[in-house]
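Sample 1 of the test manifest.
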Amino acid sequence: MNSLRKYFAIASVALLIVLAVSPLKDYFSEWRSYQYQYNALVATLPQRVKPVPIGIKQQWVQKFDRVDRCETCHLGISEPALKHAKQPFTAHPNIYHDIDEFGCTICHDGQGAATEYKESIGKVKFWEKPILPKDFMEASCAKCHKEQNVPEAPILNEGRKLIEQSNCVGCHKIDGYDKQWVPRLDGIGSKVNRTWLVNWLKNPKAYFPQTRMPNFLLSDEEANNLADFLMTFTTPPANASLEKLPAQLASASAAAKAKMISLGATKFSEARCISCHMINGKGGYVANDLGKVASKVNETWLYNYLENPKRISPDVEMPRFRFTKNNLADVVAYMEDQFVDYDAPQPPPYTPDPAAYEKGLALYKHYNCAGCHELSAAPKAEEMGPELTYVGSKKIYEIDFGQTTIEQNLPSYLKTKLLHPRIFTPAMKMPDFGFTDEQARAVTVALLGNTDEKIPAAYIVHPKPKSTFMPQGDFGKLVRSLSCMSCHVMNGNGRLVATDLSMEASQVQEKWLEGYFKVPYSLRPILTERMPNFFLSDAEIRTIAGYMEKVFIADSIEHNVKTTPAAVASGKGLFFQKYGCQSCHQVGGKGGYVGPPLDKVGSRLKEGWIFHWLKDPQAYRPNSIQPDYKLTDEDAEALTAYLMTLK
Amino acid sequence: MKKAFEKLFRSQVWRSMFRHGLPLSNRTRAEAVFYNFFLHVHPTKVRKRSVKFTYTWGLGGLSLGLFIILVFTGGLLMLYYRPSVAQAYWDMKDLQFVVSNGRFLRNMHRWAAHAMVAIVFLHMMRVFYTGSYRPPKEFNWVIGVFLLVTTILLSYTGYLLPWDQLSFWGISVGTNMVKAVPFGLGDTISYLLLGGTMVGENALVRFYVLHCFIIPVAAVVLMAIHFWRVRKDGGV
């Protein structure tokens, strides 16, 4: 009986000890110790920072349906005095959202409910969203910000741009991106030479480093078969036929050729081809590099293309220059002579394969060439990659990391995949886009932002609806033939390389406009993109000016300014003394180069525009560096009066 | 001191609970046993060998003890847990991270539940191998089988309540197995359990009510009969 009592006593004491463990663990918890440390820290600061009462601190973010307890330990988050304190007490860097309103995990991910370090960063079993690494932080902006240019998120914006440019939607379904124009491959057999094509297929960036075409890492045999397959398509789209070269070009004597070449050189520079095209890496960024084009396309194709680009390649952005037949022959002769690739790599060894067509077609389908290119023989994209609209919510258990030893999380998977597309399993087909580390990170950021998280509609920032403005009639035909919208914006539609034309006729005088189209010049000598010379006819110029005068008008910037001598004198004073405009603008051969010269501004611009522009430049061009002096009406009118006298 | 006790023993409150005087005579000693539930359920006589620990291994008593722990911890867990799809998992996270001793409560409940299933099963094996199901105890064996079933059902219904992937799929599998019951009953039973055709809000509420009210009450009633019979048949 005695021994039973002993056992009972021992068991009771053991039970008491066991029961004491849990409250003790509660009492000596990690967060409590951080709070004591924090209070000790703030006591040593020269600034007065309130110590915190001990206890769990949490934010209930009702609209995002989450409770974040991060501030239980991150106590100095909104305390500027703790900017340089060690973690977890560091103040949050400049932030664009109210922490109390948005909480922490909506941006950072991790386990907001947790009160222990390891659990809170979410790198534990059964937590699907571990904390987002700092490098990829901007991905979270994309959860709500669906607009084109997200403020303060350069990496995200860059990533989205790269996704669009790289035409990822050719193979992956991703909501919110448009498919980019890519040349059709019908007629490629009568356009390029086979050696170039094989080299191009093997490594496109060797020919043109900025090309969007990725490297499919083809073997020599694959490249040969695919090239043989493609070379069989000799009819351009829409059954357009290639005209024969004119006799003067086809059978010119050496002396005649030399003359043509020198004339062609002049026309080539007059037309300002390099505003859009590069020549061996220098020049515009709008179109591709012409530096080695003579080794790529044949002379007949080049002649036909330059004569009317959209006939041979529908929807291409290249405008139709109004060359005369002779000038056209000269330019072609010049290009054929100048732009030869002397360092073209040796094509891989080649023994014709009788089954090249079938094998080439199979490769064409396997690598989903039809995702980007159109070709009548294989019109449908068949081998699509996975949809990426919600790739940011992909779970770790859904990812095959293969034999790699990278960190096992989604950001590192995506980035590694972009840099080394076939590293995880050899069966992967994704081509190598040649992204730099920074670019791969940017694309990863943009992809991570594609989550299926439910955000209340009120918090989603939608992209501006795209304008579908397209001028019609004679002017519309000219706009399409000259591809004006490749560089100019009209009523919200177009690519902004040059100016927005939506209220051009309220800005400039009709006479100046007509003169400008005869010999276009750049208003800003420091810009690289310059208006090409299309060699327009007088009738075409009148059509353009006439349409602009009727349509590209904004009544709101009409403003009458009296040009009294007193106003002019006062304006001159303001110009040179008060505002020192000459530090950026040239007048009378003196002044800065930053802004356009103002010598003949009085015969170029309309007074209403000058007045409104001076009053609030950023209202019209948000990125303009013209300072906003918050001018009074009188000052703006006086300056306008003075400028209008500069004829 | 003595006077105070005497006053207490004579008070109406005391006398309403203990209807006999102090056990000083044989009569009052007998009354003390008859009128007390806990003493009266004892058998009038117990065989010496059945007192021996290795005769029963105390498995029935251990099961009861675990059941008491489960009722106690479960009751406390009910203070924090809400059986709704939106909140169930987060309430569990709260128990883990912010409720004082919450993790201890959950773990106690979980391990006691596991232990109870194991011990009840061992208890049944012990009864079987010692032949304790033989007449006159055959009815109590049947009650015991029902108790085993309630224990397993308690364990199973509790499985859904954390509302994580494991519980969701566990219950999906289980209720799909129920559908295999023949005579067209399977679908009906599965529908009855889930309150629908899939594991969702209705299923969660049903399993919660089953786990916290219906099955425990059934278990308590069965246990009462079970213990009564054990005692009447000369068990400890």
